[in-house]
Amino acid sequence: MKSFPVHDASQGTADSLSDTPGVFETWAIKSEQLVNVALTDSVIKILDAFYHDRHYARFYVLETIARVPYFAFISVLHLYESFGWWRRADYLKVHFAESWNELHHLLIMEELGGNALWFDRLLAQHIAIFYYFMTVFMYALSPRMAYHFSECVEKHAYSTYDKFVKLHGDELKNLPAPEVAIKYYMGEDMYLFDEFQTARAPNTRRPQIENLYDVFLNIRDDEAEHCKTMKACQSHGNLQSPHSNPDYREDDSCTALPQTDCEGIVDCLKKSVTSQ
Ligand SMILES: [Fe+2]
Ligand SMILES: [Fe+2]
C-alpha cells in the first residue's frame, strides 16, 4: 500500500507526550489495530472481487460508506452532549466537515455514473447501514479504535485514488470535470473545506479544477487529509478545528466555549458519577 506524508499524532501535544502508555494499554492498542487491519483487508477483498475493473462503481461504493463513520462519531458525541457528559465543539465541527467532504466525493461519483446499477446501490447502502452501527458500537467502547479503523479506511481510499490517477492520468486530462466538483473545489464559501483539514492552516489549499484529472488528484489529497485527522484523533483531546487552532487563528474571543469531555462510554459514566 502506498504511503504518504502524515503528521505523527504520537508526537503531537505536550499532554499526549506525558501519557506514556502502560503494558496493558500497549497490548490493547496492538489488539485493536490488528482487528482493524483484518477488517479493512476483508472489505478490500470483497471490493476487489466485485469491482476489479469498474472504477467509478467501486468509487461510488467507497464514497457511500466513507461518510458513515463521521456521522456515527457525531451521533455518539451528540448523545454524550445530551447527557451532559461531554462538550467539545471542535470534534463535532471537524467530523461534520469531513462528512461534507465525503458527500461531495459521492456526488462526483454519481455524476460520473458510478451508481448506475441497482446492485451497486444495494450493496453500498447495506454496507453503510452495517458500518454505521458497527462504528457507533466501536466508538462507544473505544474512540481510539474507531478512529484507527477510519484511518485504515482513509489510507485505503488514498491508495486507490493514487493508483487510479497514475494509471489513467493521460485519459483523465482529456475529460471534463463534473459540475459538482467545480462548485465544491472552486466555490466562494470554503469554510467547511478548510475545516476538515486539521493539519493545515485555513486558506492554504485552493484547488484549481480544469479537467477530470484535477478532480481525482484533489479527491486523493482530501483522503490524505482525512487520514492525518483520524491519526490526530487517536490521541485523546488532540483534535482542534483549524479555525480555532491557536497556531492559526487570529481572534478566538467569540468562539471560546467551556470544554468538558470523556473518552468513551465507560469514562463518561465514571466521570458523571465522580463529579457529583
Ligand atoms: Fe472520499
Ligand atoms: Fe475518505
UniProtKB/TrEMBL annotation:
Listed EC numbers: 1.10.3.11
Top-level taxonomic group: Eukaryota
GO CC terms in record: membrane; mitochondrion; respiratory chain complex; thylakoid
Cofactor: record remark: Binds 2 iron ions per subunit.
CDD domains: AOX (cd01053)
Family of this protein: Belongs to the alternative oxidase family.
Gene source species: Spirodela intermedia
Protein name listed in UniProt: Ubiquinol oxidase
Chief location bin: membrane
GO annotation terms (biological process): alternative respiration; carotenoid biosynthetic process
Cofactor (UniProt): Fe cation
Keywords tagged on the record: Electron transport, Iron, Membrane, Metal-binding, Oxidoreductase, Respiratory chain, Transmembrane, Transmembrane helix, Transport
Cellular localisation: Membrane
Lineage: Eukaryota, Viridiplantae, Streptophyta, Embryophyta, Tracheophyta
Catalyzed reactions: 2 a ubiquinol + O2 = 2 a ubiquinone + 2 H2O
InterPro entries to which the protein is assigned, alphabetical: AOX, AOX_sf
Enzyme class label: oxidoreductase
GO molecular function term, any single one: ubiquinol:oxygen oxidoreductase activity
TM ranges: 59-80, 122-141
